Amino acid sequence: MAAITASMVAELRARTDAPMMECKKALTEAEGDLTRAEEILRVKLGNKAGKAASRITAEGVVAAAVVGGAGALLEVNCETDFVSKNEAFLAFVNALAGLVAEKNPADVDALSALPLSQEGFGPTVEDVRKGLIGKIGENMTIRRFKRYEGGKLVSYLHGTRIGVMVEFDGDDVAAKDVAMHVAAMKPAALSSAEVPAELVAKERKIAEEKAAESGKPADIVAKMVEGSVQKFLKEVSLLDQVFVKAADGKQTVAAMLKEKATAVKSFTLYVVGEGIEKKVDDFAAEVAAQKAAAEAAAAAKNA
Fold first, then answer.
1. Are residues 88 and 138 in the same domain?
2. Are residues 96 and 33 in the same domain?
3. Residue 256 burial by CB count (10 A; 0-12/13-18/19+): exposed, middle or buried?
4. Domain match, 175 and 63 both
5. Pairing mode, strands 162-169 and 263-271
6. Is residue 158 located within the same domain as residue 40?
7. Per the database record, which ranges form the Translation elongation factor EFTs/EF1B dimerisation domain (predicted)?
8. What is the pLDDT of residues 259-287, one digit of tens each?
């Protein structure tokens, strides 16, 4: 059985906000598998342990740009929050967003090969990146971008950590409101039919395990599972979500858009560091290791 360390418990607690002892029990049951332990906590504690998807796990910046009829949303990561506020780093990220919108690179490698000069570094994006790493003293990586062209676009940035771009037809104000809604509510897809199959399967598995613990007949359990899955789909589908600015607290995004004669074709949401495994240091273990190494060196010297 895998050893359950204090750092593993701390990471699971940071992901879920669950009590420390519950995290330890879940990790023990999951034999050290963090993802499985999180699922176990979801079954036991419900939505209280479902915060992993929105947990920030790395530093960096999201930037948006619209050039002519094209737009881009882009994320660049760095090691610390301090560097994410560095003027040179921010200038680099904003320049990249503009390049994506204007030049339409196929992927990160193609973007890295485009011409760019900054801070005396160049002549390519990759040369500037390497130069800034040397100057600032911290690693930085271009993680991802999404480009749109040919439709109406609106973007919304919540600081530099959350970015949204929406492709739409209709009213500009309504589309901007949708972009702000996406940043706040973080839907997984435009409609229920577009929710990724792996998310639905994961939620169904959790619902089945939770319903099985009720001890109710199989037909009732099946209805409970289906009800949980349908509730989940409404909660993570943009059009089915209750609009954050709804005056009555009930109007859905779809109803608001219909009222404004507006249609959202697609959207992209980036949250800085989402899904990136950030190293969790076990300080006590590190100190113990350093002490042991020092004692071993002293013993060798005196031998």
1. yes
2. no
3. buried
4. yes
5. antiparallel
6. no
7. 71-274
8. 999 999 999 999 998 877 555 444 455 44
